[in-house]
What does this fold into?
Amino acid sequence: MSLPNHIEHDASPNIALSNMHPWVDPKSQQPLHQQGDAIYNSYTDRKVAEIVGGIPRFVKAHENYSESFGWQWKKWEDARSDQRNNGHNLKDIILQRTHFLDYDLEGKSLLECGMGGGDDTEILLQLPLGEIHSFDISTSVERAAKFLKDPRLTISQASILDIPYSDESFDIVYCHRVLQHTPNPAASLRSICAKVKRGGILFAHSYKRSWRYMSEWRYKYRWLTKRLPHRWVFSYVDACGPFLHHVKKIMANNLLTRAFSYQFIPFYWMPPASITGQLSTDQQIELEKCITFDALTPWHDHPMTSTQFCSIIQSEGFEIQHIHDPKSSPIYCTAVRK
It folds into this structure.
């Protein structure tokens, strides 16, 4: 990981200078400088971040509302990685959803808002981008840093509501499967919109607040499961996952049992049509365990309506060029800033 080039820099064994986008004070947009293992506002000398394990941390432990994801991505290191889970299809999903191949990406800068454990980042690094800046509020960034070694990549731990980069500074801003897990998805969406240059590209994704989606089992049980120790929820999905995988597969063959399964049985079964890769049954069950844990444990899960999602993007000066807006969920789009 590296400090951008116009941050003043004291010698550090973990951080080196680069020509990448500079971090700024997320509260004031003012420049920063580094002293030892901390980063300070150059005007006020206020400490803005600490450098721990080679990663700048712009959030304090008590501000991290998504530590279930930090726990999750360290537990399932490989489940959603195309490179380490042979047969997964994440690259196909991302390229299909973003339409990025319709645009000139050569040498462009991209800001990834909410990188999790870096599985999407792994795919983005395969594109001809000049630099990628990725952050997450959880400690999942440590898992990402463990596996992702690319000079174009800069990783930090930061909040989507206080992004430590200047407004209108990136060619592309990418936010996938994140907005609904923030305290205020509308404010988070406006926050990421602000970082896109004029003429730049935004890809945004959110769970959709629809009657059908909100009837799913997760919204019946989350009031309890999000308060349980993560290890308890893991023990449930680990012990019951193989059995529930086969039960839900059988129930999917009948309209009534499929509807009951969707609304009441707390396990995520992946229909064969949703897997374009070549996962084995064991790999599929492990991925289903991960996704079930992902559904039951986040403190925040706030889907947005289509109207709210689109109106915010358009009010921030974007023209939506591609949109996916099904009756259920999720909703996502690619838009260009006018």
